[in-house]
Amino acid sequence: MSLINSSRIADPELAPEGHRSIEWARRHSPLVDGFLRDRLKDGALEGRRVAVVVHLEAKTALLATVLADAGAQVVAAGSNPHSTRDEIAAALVDRGVEVHSTRDSGYDAWEKDLMAVADTGPELIIDDGAELTIRMASQRPAAFQELKGVTEQTTTGVARLVELESRGRLPFPVLAANDAACKHLFDNKYGTGQSTVQAILNLTNMLMAGKDVAILGYGWVGRGIAAHVRALGGTAWVIEIDPVKALEGFMDGHRVGSLSDVLPRADFILTATGGRRAVARHHFSMMKDGAILANAGHHDLEIDVEALADEASDFRTVRPGIDEYKINNNQSVLVLANGALVNIAGGLGHPIEIMDLSFAVQGVGCHELARGTVPQGVNVIDPLLDSEIARAKLSSHGILLDVKEPGQADIIDDLLGPEA
Ligand SMILES: NC(=O)c1ccc[n+]([C@@H]2O[C@H](COP(=O)([O-])OP(=O)(O)OC[C@H]3O[C@@H](n4cnc5c(N)ncnc54)[C@H](O)[C@@H]3O)[C@@H](O)[C@H]2O)c1
User: Fold this and answer.
1) What residue owns the CA closest to ligand 1's atom 40?
2) Greater pLDDT, 141 or 83
């Protein structure tokens, strides 16, 4: 069967537009297109079945292309029903990758797409939110037992896999790509921070200066968003359940408060907790009229949009990506990108340079799993590999580092004196 027949995409004719976007991503991805390509030349991926289940856009397509060029049989699907770019899916099929995904497919079709990927019998998965891995554990147990390894992109997905391991249900090695320094220090903070604020401003065409912005969760993502809000003249209000994180937000110079204190004043309300229903049914009536809500966390239900729809007496789409719900007679609550990850479903996703780093980690992780160097359980990438990726990124900017010279190390013998 041809790939067009075995794939489920919106329109193969969109491929030329997709190729242009992937080529633009390639031009700014020295690690994936150079460093990773070189590592994969050892043939470790030759003939291996690799599933890529990450938001299907240009940077992901570049990673899938590089894996396929290294000889892997790649099959791809989106990690969220709202984030797939149809032109990218078409271009990937044109490049020899089987794809099961369409934009805004709805949850039922998305679930079927994930199972179609599972039914190709992947050996290795590059996952996001552990969306494929978790479903294979419950719905395709035999194929799940055959998996040779998973690399995982997100905080939420790593937490799910750790939970699976603690229940004794993880029979293969996992690399927590998210926990690599080269991933979360840059992707979660700078990438999500910039692209979330950028997407909100693009969707609304509004100004950040002078706005009060409630940010739920001051982890890596929350602190990146807060920094970008402040850089544009907004006031970030940190809402946390962890006192240490809240104190960090305070010392970073942001305002800190409880949800009930901050909601009545907030112009924008942004979630980045990694959990569900951080903004729940009882919170909507505390908001001021016209408050705008957006989510940057993995769950589409960080903002309980279902409960909001249930409470609403009226609903309409006011602009592409902006839905208005009327509650309490005439209070307006606006939700961006259906409550899905706003930077991806409602924007262009992370900056290319950031995904170049993240996907270098994912690609190197996949390569190590194929080589069989990763032990059972959930592992962090070898710190030496992490440093190698950082060094390669610096070198792509023409930056070389110094090494410690003899005589620069602290020697405690000088302080201890001769042994008695
Ligand atoms: N949008 C993107 O492109 C993108 C990129 C990276 C990560 N993520 C996702 O963003 C989410 C957060 O990631 P992270 O790396 O910042 O995680 P993290 O664990 O570093 O931070 C999450 C923070 O949320 C706080 N929190 C949890 N529940 C809360 C609640 N109900 N109210 C207030 N605070 C609460 C926690 O105390 C923690 O400090 C995850 O779901 C992750 O997968 C999204």
Assistant:
1) 274
2) 141
